[in-house]
Amino acid sequence: MGKEFKSFYKTVGGNEGSKCKYPTRLDTYGCGCQHDCKYCYAKSLLDFRGLWNAENPSIADLTDLKKQIDKLPKGTILRLGGMTDCFQPLELTYRNTYKMIKYLNKKRIGYLIVTKSHYVANDEYLEIYDKDLAHFQITVTTTDDKKSLEYERASIPSKRIEAIEKLQASGFDVQLRLSPFIYEYIDFDILNNVKCDKILVEFLRVNHWIKKWFDIDYKPFTHKENGYYHLPLTKKKEMIKNITGFKEMTVCEDCSNHYDYWRNYVNNNKEDCCNLRRE
User: E strand or H helix at 58, and its extent?
Assistant: First the structure.
């Protein structure tokens, strides 16, 4: 089962929590993630503390998580997949996420699923999602299947795009999450032809650990804020100009001045940078 990890359920505070409309995160697996992405901020926070085991992540105790959910008012939206991916390969064996979705449906608690796995669109899951409660952000970091294998062990991007399009065609609230957005890894002809109405963009934030694991050119990351190095806003604005194939775009941002710019001039929903569809 792996070692215990106290943050299977957590409400994020501080700078990140103040900007996020859905700061309460629930992880069905923890203490590591089988996708083991080299740019992962969660890995950078846990690895040096001895709390990251990509080969043998912990399995959350659903009994404890259900007790937390029982305290929530109807209409709450939880993020599934805060520190680890709720659809990593372990899910095919333990089915914690499947069980948790059924419980959230029962309690009428909404869920925002953030994943890099095409399993999220498997038919058995489509059968249980509640369209009034379910929201999806499927992460794509490159449009090159071969390239993705160099730095992450998740589903190849073409499979993720198929999952996005399947959820979109089925009428679900789904977004392509370009996170982190590495400009040179994207074929914009492929990206802009994805059959999905919405895209969410998140730029890479860099610390010592990510620099050690993820091999890209860090010279442009000249803006330091909240313990990370970031691209300057002018660079970010240039990068998003090539994203043209979506009806709605929003930017998830850590830097305060940058956040204000996206909120005021770019984001489809100024009050919700996740841009969820809510009645």
Answer: strand 58-59
Structure tokens at 7: 């943050």
10 Å CB burial of residue 146 (0-12, 13-18, 19+) is exposed
Q: For residue 48, give the 3-state DSSP assignment.
A: helix
Domains of the chain by range and CATH?
A: 9-203 (3.20.20.70)
Q: Which residues of the chain have pLDDT under 70?
A: 1-7, 12-18, 41-52, 54, 279
Question: Are 64 and 85 spatial neighbours (Cβ–Cβ below 8 Å)?
Answer: no
From residue 166, give the alpha-carbon distance in Å to each of 21, 74, 91, 94, 228.
26, 28, 20, 24, 36
Pairing assessment for the beta strands 198-202 and 110-115 based on DSSP bridges? unpaired
Specify whether the CB–CB gap between 121 and 87 falls below 8 A.
Answer: no
Residue 80 near residue 28, CB atoms below 8 Å: yes
User: What separation, in Å, do the N-terminal and C-terminal C-alpha atoms of the chain show?
Assistant: 40
The predicted-structure confidence for 175-221, as pLDDT tens digits, reads as follows 999 999 999 999 999 999 999 999 999 999 998 888 888 889 999 99
Q: What is the pLDDT of residues 108-121, one digit of tens each?
A: 999 999 999 999 99
Q: What is the Cα–Cα distance from 277 to 265, expressed in whole angstroms? A: 20
Enter the tokens of residue 223.
Answer: 């803006």
Cα 189-249-112 angle, rounded to 5 deg: 110
Residue 121 DSSP label: G
pTM: 0.91
Query: Which residues lie below 8 Å from residue 129, measured CB to CB, with a gap of 6+?
Result: 101, 172
201, 240 Cβ separation under 8 angstroms? yes
Q: Could you tell me whether strands 134-140 and 173-178 are parallel, antiparallel, or unpaired per DSSP bridges? A: parallel
